[in-house]
Amino acid sequence: MAYPKIVENLIEKLMKLPGIGRRSAERILFHLLSAPKEDVRELCDVITKIKEGLMFCRICNNLSEAEVCLICSDTNRDERTICVVENPKDVLAIERTGAYRGHYHVLLGSIAPAEGRGPDDLKIHHLVKRVENQDIKEVVIATDPDTEGETTALYITRELKDTGVKISRIGLGIPVGSALEYADLSTLSVSLSSRRQIE
After folding, report:
1. How many CB atoms lie within 10 A of CB 79?
2. How far is C-alpha 153 from the chain's CA centre?
């Protein structure tokens, strides 16, 4: 027996979410059907508000509800250090460690030629401008230790080489081929404290 068309449509939309297969989509669907209408409306409202109310910080590209994010607005942070990450979720992963008190620069991706994404598609030029126009002493590159992340790190190193800024890469602890968001807090802490300068 087939589901009604409206049900199939929702299942197909849910399956487009990462990690959601058909069975998970069906479970979500039946949960929504059994939930009170008000709960479903609130969920829809929150999803709509995320798309309409969030923006990228004009300084670091992190997610923000205002033009400048909470981290860039924090005067207690070290303004002379920038940690470069691929995505806003990487900022959250590093923040959870409590081991880093500088600022961030979110690239909004990594160099991935196979996916048609090159350096011009990222916020690398914006990073170079920040380093040139601010009193930045160190750039910590914390891209994922996979092929795309390493390629991105090498490209950034080359772009910043003539600026005189110290360039370091997060060190021990993150397994090659994994992503920052899956690393535990102690692993991320060790990685940040054992970062190494890139020559």
Report:
1. 14
2. 15
- Tell me if residue 141 falls in helix, strand or coil: strand
- Cβ partners under 8 Å of residue 75, min gap 6: none
CATH of 5-50, one of 1.10.3720.10, 1.10.8.420, 3.30.565.10, 1.10.10.10: 1.10.8.420
Record the tokens describing residue 71, joined without a space: 């981290």
CB 179 within 8 A of CB 146: yes
How far apart are the C-alpha atoms of 182 and 188, rounded to whole Å? 10
Partnered with residue 63 across adjacent β-strands are: 56
Residue range 75-111, pLDDT digits in tens: 999 999 999 999 999 999 999 989 999 999 999 999 9
Q: Which long-range contacts (CB under 8 A, 24 or more apart) does 110-119 make?
A: 110/86, 110/143, 110/144, 110/148, 110/149, 110/151, 110/152, 111/148, 111/151, 111/152, 111/155, 112/148, 112/151, 119/155
* Topology of the domain comprising 77-197: Dna Topoisomerase Vi A Subunit; Chain: A, domain 2 (3.40.1360)
User: What's the whole-model pTM score?
Assistant: 0.75
